[in-house]
Specification:
The chain has about 220 residues and is α+β, with helices and mostly antiparallel strands. About 50% of the residues lie in helices and about 15% in strands. Its main location: membrane.
Length: about 220
């Protein structure tokens, strides 16, 4: 994905090269995910099957996003017209549901505080890819027994804030578990940052949190 964006940024390759760079990893993700899914025993873990199914669905969505948004953007230099507002609350809830399944392995808890509805002027497919990637990254980056807090609020613009709290900050000294000093990978979310900017939004992140703001009325013009 990063290579594909580099191609777009430099203009050094034609559209066919960009299509290849973006579609090849997605095709591999789908193929290997479906092989793993087929190899699960009949009485295999339900959570494992659900996670593989979610990965496959998101890869398909991302393929459609590449074809409907990224490649046209590379050709025209402008985002496609907005077809309608997206309910960010529904997107966040779906992302949190998947994150909770993934979090079981590290005994990480995930909680989201969201209003009844919140509309943003971003295509739903793009929104799901962006929010899903960020929430999953934070859940995986959290140390064992940590708690992930997610909140959607207006401050004053609509923004999604999330952070993880280590177990040591959640319990008394007598209850604390041994700390996990395993180095956590530095987040590599350049694609997410680029997508947020193209949507007229803003993404700020560090090793333990992120803050994503998205436009509530109209897409910002893309810089040429």
């Amino acid at each position: 994905m990063r290579r594909g964006l580099d191609v777009f940024a430099t203009g050094e390759d034609p559209a066919a090269r960009m299509r290849h760079e973006l579609h090849t990893p997605l095709t591999s993700i789908k193929a290997y995910t479906r092989l793993l899914r087929d190899d699960l025993p009949a009485n295999g873990l339900a959570d494992g099957a659900a996670c593989l199914d979610a990965i496959d669905r998101n890869a398909v969505r991302l393929e459609r996003y590449v074809d409907s948004v990224v490649l046209p953007l590379a050709a025209t230099g402008a985002p496609p017209p907005r077809e309608g507002a997206t309910d960010l609350v529904a997107v966040v809830r779906d992302a949190v549901d998947l994150a909770r399944r993934v979090a079981v392995a590290g005994a990480v808890s995930v909680h989201a505080d969201v209003p009844d509805t919140a509309r943003v002027a971003v295509d739903e497919m793009i929104c799901r890819h962006l929010v899903g990637q960020l929430v999953l990254w934070l859940t995986i980056a959290a140390p064992p027994h940590a708690h992930v807090e997610i909140a959607l609020r207006r401050d004053p613009a609509l923004c999604l804030e999330a952070r993880f709290v280590p177990a040591g900050e959640l319990t008394t000294a007598a209850q604390r578990r041994p700390s996990d000093n395993t180095p956590r990978p530095t987040p590599d979310l350049q694609v997410a940052e680029a997508v947020a900017n193209l949507c007229g939004g803003d993404l700020r992140l560090d090793a333990t949190s992120f803050r994503l703001s998205l436009p509530a009325s109209a897409l910002a013009p893309s810089p040429r």
